[in-house]
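[agent] plan:
  1. take the single chain provided in the ticket
  2. run structure prediction with default settings
  3. attach structure tokens to the ticket
  4. add a short note for the reviewer (M.T.)
[agent] executing step 1
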Amino acid sequence: MNDARRHQREPAWKAKPVAQRRHEFALALAVVGVLAAATIGAVVTSRSSGSTSLAAAAPPTTLAGFDVDVELTGLPDLAVADPSQNATEPTTPVEQERTDGGCTIGALSLHLGGSGDGVACLQQALADRGHFTEAVDGDFGGSTLRAVMDYQTDAQLFVDGVVGRESALALGIWPDEESLIVRTPPPAPGAKDLWGVELSPVASAGTDAPPLPPDSGSGRRVVYDRAGQRVWAVREDGLILRSWLVSGSAYSNETPGTHEVYSRSDMSTAWNGEAYLPQMVRWLKTDIGAIGFHAIPLHVDDGSPYQTSDELGTRLSGGCQRQHNLDAAFLWAFATIGTPVVVT
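[agent] step 2 finished; step 3 output follows
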């Protein structure tokens, strides 16, 4: 990267004093609560006026000096699960283990044309349930495809013939995910990170944070480890300013590699219009929608959260990474446009 481009990308926060950064973080945190309240208020107003449609309950376009981008058109944000995303899952082999020692599919997904031990594991699981009657040979051919689709139909899963996380979980051949999650002790009340802002119950900082995953880049960046459901905010010199658990995608549509923040919205909506997504920070465009970090989503119909803080660290989203409100506010202040996002 040449000096001119590096100068253009220099983040504005670097020149700001700590006091100003803390003030901006406080404003960012405040907007989550205010927008949530506005959402609930809009719903209450809609109901009290006698309207039978809750679709009219939308947040305002401006609020306390913040722009609110409610994206109902264009590329939607993937926060609520869309089962058809199984078709986009990569088939690259990965190391997977089960606590009971049993086999797994050995990849993020399997489909027609695949082969190997993972396919043999799939065939045996299908045979055990009466859906596969041929020899277990490790080749994902037409008979295996039909068996997968029959099983998905019977199990009331999305029927696409692709065995991703949801189908493998139902068949009992997905690895034990909790064994990959590092849960740090809750910080003391009022404890702050190395940027001087309050830690959430699932956050840590500095040497108290879990180490960064291998091959996760260098310089100032955001690192997201899919297996561990964990995010790190890293300073230019490699110091971990903050690390926290998230609830990422239940599918494998979070493409690994180095990306960058390309778009942000104080408030957005999910692809199906059923959830408000506070403080959306987007880093990936897919064929069917945008993926990014945001606060825990709120139901459009009543403003209630989609999950609790205790559930962070569990894959619950359709693509995006859900965060505790304190962590979402921190990232909103940290991850300006152009910030690198390294996904492992």
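[agent] step 4 note for reviewer: Confidence is low (pLDDT under 50) at residues 1-14, 34-74, 81-90.
[agent] ticket updated
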